[in-house]
Design goal:
174 residues; mainly beta; nine-stranded mixed sheet; 1 helix; 9 strands; 8% helix; globular; disordered N terminus
Length: 174
């Protein structure tokens, strides 16, 4: 079988889409879901973010340990938030439920995560597709690891840092 240039051009989108699973998620009214976490005896915070598709903002702007603001209009995508406290260590995990996420048309999915500037912070972020604005320069960073699939990442690390820290970024397309 001989493939001509038009045939190859027509097959490319089919081959690319064959690895993707699209689900027909129903949009509904926009939901707003805030959470806040007090510092208490927490002396270091381990933050894990797992977002399949959407818009992510991460930065400072609270006197509490953390404050989160979620906006979404697909009911099944309500973020799962878990906070565990072990001695002086806090573990905050935020996860988008489900496995296959598309972000088309009128779907809205936004996370705004605000963190305390004075608490040592370890960040692990798995971000599939969308836009991420990470304003981390004012935070007391100890380690940052980011895995991103497709989209735009704006990460600002400028600041007056008192110690060194590691930043690892694994990016896809964007």
């Amino acid at each position: 079988m001989k493939l001509t240039l038009p045939a190859v051009g027509a097959l490319c989108p089919i081959l690319l889409l064959s690895g993707c699973v699209f689900t027909a998620e129903r949009t509904g009214p926009t939901q707003y879901d805030p959470h806040s976490f007090e510092k208490g005896s927490v002396e270091e915070l381990h933050l894990e973010l797992n977002m399949g598709a959407g818009d992510l903002k991460l930065g400072t702007g609270t006197r509490k340990l953390a404050q989160t603001y979620f906006t979404y209009n697909v009911a099944d995508w309500k973020p799962e938030v878990r906070f565990d406290h072990h001695g002086n260590r806090g573990d905050l995990t935020i996860r988008q439920p489900g496995h296959n996420h598309t972000h088309f048309g009128s779907m809205k999915y936004e996370w705004d995560v605000r963190l305390a500037e004075d608490i040592p912070l370890y960040v692990r972020c798995n971000f599939g597709a969308g836009q991420a604005q990470l304003d981390l320069g004012s935070l007391n960073l100890r380690d940052v690891e980011l895995d991103m699939g497709v989209g735009q990442l704006d990460m600002d690390l400028r600041g007056n840092h008192k110690h060194d820290y590691n930043v690892r970024i694994n990016g896809g397309v964007g």
